[in-house]
């Protein structure tokens, strides 16, 4: 049987990349705050306003370093999770074959949220890598433990942070594997 363009498209991988929209908004807010505090330092009305301006400038400068680091890491890493016909790949790790997973679970992010995260749940005895974060990379191991306790897996994808609708991730899972997708 000859493959059609639709068959080839069916096997195309889905690379989940973090959206940096939130970082852009935070950068804009910090830029405006920085300008405000600089004006307070240059033209203070009294000594208290000068001190507040200096403290504000220090805070904005340290936050800027934090945001620039996160933005650089988000840009450099490109994709964080890749779904293809072989399985799930977390950047910097080996491919986790679909056969090592038992299900894909859609869970509410929190009791107050309507956002559903996508968790790739492993079979018993299978250890999965954690999805790296942009803001606190040194906490990836602790985050993996926390996510496993909460969602049953360290590979948890928040579609909002990836700038994708949940149904697109679910469609890729259904297209590339035979895993059940369950609501939790």
List keywords for this structure.
184 residues, alpha+beta, 2 domains, elongated, disordered N terminus
Tell me the strand order in the biggest sheet: 1-2-3-4
Query: Into which percent range does the helicity of residues fall?
Result: 40-55%
Q: What is the count of DSSP helices, taking H or I runs of 4+ residues?
A: 6
Output the structural class.
alpha+beta
Mean pLDDT: 83
Strand percent estimate? 15-25%
Task: Give me the strand/helix succession.
Answer: HEHHEEEEEHEHHE
Overall number of structural domains = 2
CA distance, first residue to last residue: 39 Å
The main β sheet shows up as: 4 strands, antiparallel
Q: Write down how many β-strands occur, each being a DSSP E stretch of 2 or more residues.
A: 8
Q: Low-confidence parts, pLDDT < 50 over ≥5 residues?
A: 1-9
General shape: elongated
Q: Any idea what the radius of gyration is?
A: 21 Å
What's the short story on this structure?
The protein is α+β, with helices and mostly antiparallel strands. Helix content is 47%, strand content 18%. It contains 6 helices and 8 strands; from the N terminus they run αβααβββββαβααβ.
């Amino acid at each position: 049987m000859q493959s059609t363009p639709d068959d080839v498209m069916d096997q195309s991988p889905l690379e989940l990349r973090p959206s940096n929209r939130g970082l852009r908004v935070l950068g804009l807010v910090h830029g405006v705050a920085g300008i405000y505090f600089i004006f307070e330092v240059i033209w203070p009305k009294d000594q208290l306003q000068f001190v507040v301006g200096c403290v504000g400038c220090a805070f904005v400068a340290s936050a800027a370093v934090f945001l620039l680091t996160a933005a650089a890491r988000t840009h450099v890493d490109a994709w964080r999770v890749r779904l293809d016909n072989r399985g799930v790949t977390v950047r910097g790790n080996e491919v986790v074959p679909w056969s090592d997973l038992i299900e894909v679970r859609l869970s509410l992010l929190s009791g107050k949220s309507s956002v559903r995260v996508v968790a790739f749940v492993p079979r018993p005895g299978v250890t999965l890598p954690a999805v790296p974060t942009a803001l606190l990379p040194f906490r990836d191991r602790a985050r993996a433990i926390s996510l496993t306790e909460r969602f049953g897996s360290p590979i948890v994808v928040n579609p909002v942070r990836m700038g994708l609708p949940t149904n697109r991730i679910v469609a890729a899972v259904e297209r590339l594997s035979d895993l059940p997708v369950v609501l939790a």
